[in-house]
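Re-run with default settings, no changes from the original entry. Doing this only to confirm the output is reproducible before filing.
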Amino acid sequence: MSVALRKPPRQLALALPHEESLSRENFLEGPCNAHALALVESWPDWPNRIMLLAGPEGCGKSHLAAIWADIAGARTISAHSLTTENVPVSLATGALVIDDLDPSTFDMHALFHLLNLAREDGAYVLLMCRLPQTLFDIELRDLRSRLRAIPTIAMDAPDDMLFRALIVKFCADRQMNVDEALVSYLATHIERSVTAARRAVALLDTEALRLRRPVTRALAAELLRGTAV
């Protein structure tokens, strides 16, 4: 009598929440973010009460903004959520972060009102955007003039050393044991940004648990082959 053997059930990786710390202690410094970090740590001795932090997606702007918000007691609002009506409330603490300042997503008149009120009240405002040139060319002339007068601190994508350190940090946050071969592979096969590094490490962690395999260069090559990360 033959007995049909059942395949063991496929293991499912539990989607456990993973909260990344945005504290100063967890911010990795490098040449690409040195000036921006210096600005945050020099508060309130800023060259101007309103500053613009510019850089590509995943360069660490949000982490720096979170550090400054903690230091200054600042509120944070997305640019697309800004309206003329909520400007006074947004500036209530005397310090504000405005994230994702893309001309296609915010009310130009609301931002103009906010900048004027912040100047009148002596409030601190940290604006964040990817490409400052897009702000300097907006249609509302008075707002364009205001924005061009705001000092800008530029951030770049992480250099090789910092990028590798970020990969190691994200792995350590998830208690993943990794070696130099894996770190080198990731550093040369994914987009050089904080976002891409975080996404790649999360994928490795999830799939290693699901497949019951160690996190290795070979696994990374299998998962990332033909995948945009």
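DSSP finds ten helices and five strands in the chain. The longest strand covers residues 124-129.
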